[in-house]
TrEMBL record:
This is AA9 family lytic polysaccharide monooxygenase. One of its GO terms (biological process) is cellulose catabolic process. It catalyses: [(1->4)-beta-D-glucosyl]n+m + reduced acceptor + O2 = 4-dehydro-beta-D-glucosyl-[(1->4)-beta-D-glucosyl]n-1 + [(1->4)-beta-D-glucosyl]m + acceptor + H2O. One of its GO terms (cellular component) is extracellular region. The lineage of its organism: Eukaryota, Fungi, Dikarya, Basidiomycota, Agaricomycotina.
Length: 243
């Protein structure tokens, strides 16, 4: 009994730190997100299921695409939205100020629900890395999420119609040389788009888009050099705007 309580307390404490996307607003409509600590079978959401608020610690982790095995939920929804719409992701909690925010999309073809997120090709639609200051003492994309618990992006107006996964990732750099990845995905059906798709140099697999040896992935923000260094390279391919 005592040890059961202790375990319950320990996992509640873990859940209190870290974070994950818990809802969205797209073109003014609110969408409930996935709740990793509630029963999966009862949930109806545009967000793909994910397992916990805990970080993924390896860029090559097989779950780094959508923070789980990659399949749709039992009652998976897809949000139908116009290309060019603003999408705001919300986090119910977030505890780290250092590191970049990135948003990726991936085409599923005609339907996402049968598609495993390990199999698709991702392109980046938004990123916020080091906004100002130094690696050691700067304002980051994650600082904004820490302060506001949200991140705004725009679905490229040029994008071709079809079903897509959208993936928000917070990369936390507060532990020296130990990156923490926090990715979550949702399903979108894009309409009213501009018919364009990103070319090969913008596309990457996950895992694969970045490696532990990338300069923006394994970083010691407490090193002497980091206290004066003002450049930071956000991992992954260049942002595709459709322009
Ligand atoms: C949508 O969610 C936002 C953020 O939680 C909230 O401020 C807003 O009132 C909600 N809008 C509606 C129509 O529920
Ligand atoms: C900053 O620039 C230096 C020199 O070009 C490079 O070696 C280093 O990897 C960069 N750091 C980051 C975090 O991008
Ligand atoms: Cu954390």
């Amino acid at each position: 009994m005592f040890s059961t309580l202790l375990i319950a307390f320990a996992s509640a404490t873990l859940a209190l730190a870290h974070g994950g996307v818990t809802s969205y607003t797209i073109a003014g409509t609110n969408y409930t997100g996935w709740s990793p600590y509630n029963s999966a079978s009862d949930q109806t959401s545009i967000e793909r299921p994910y397992s916990s608020f805990n970080p993924i610690l390896d860029a090559a982790d097989p779950t780094i695409h959508c923070n789980d095995a990659g399949t749709a939920g039992p009652h998976q929804l897809t949000a139908e939205v116009k290309a060019g719409s603003k999408i705001t992701a919300y986090w119910s909690q977030w505890t780290h100020k250092e590191g970049p925010v990135t948003v990726y999309m991936a085409s599923c073809g005609s339907s996402c629900s049968s598609v495993n997120s390990a199999s698709v090709s991702w392109f980046k639609i938004a990123e916020t890395g080091l906004v100002s200051g130094t690696l050691g003492n700067g304002v980051w994309g994650n600082t904004g999420v820490f302060d506001t618990l949200k991140y705004d992006a725009v679905i490229p107006a040029a994008l071709a119609d079809g079903e897509y996964l959208i993936r928000h990732e917070l990369l936390a750099l507060h532990q020296a040389n130990t990156p923490q990845f926090y990715p979550e995905c949702a399903q979108l059906k894009i309409t009213g788009g501009g018919g364009k798709t990103p070319s090969g140099s913008y596309l990457a697999k996950l895992p694969g888009a970045y490696k532990m040896s990338d300069p923006g992935v394994t970083v010691d923000i407490y090193s002497t050099a980091a206290q004066t260094q003002t450049n930071y390279t956000v991992p992954g391919p260049a942002v595709w705007t459709g322009a």
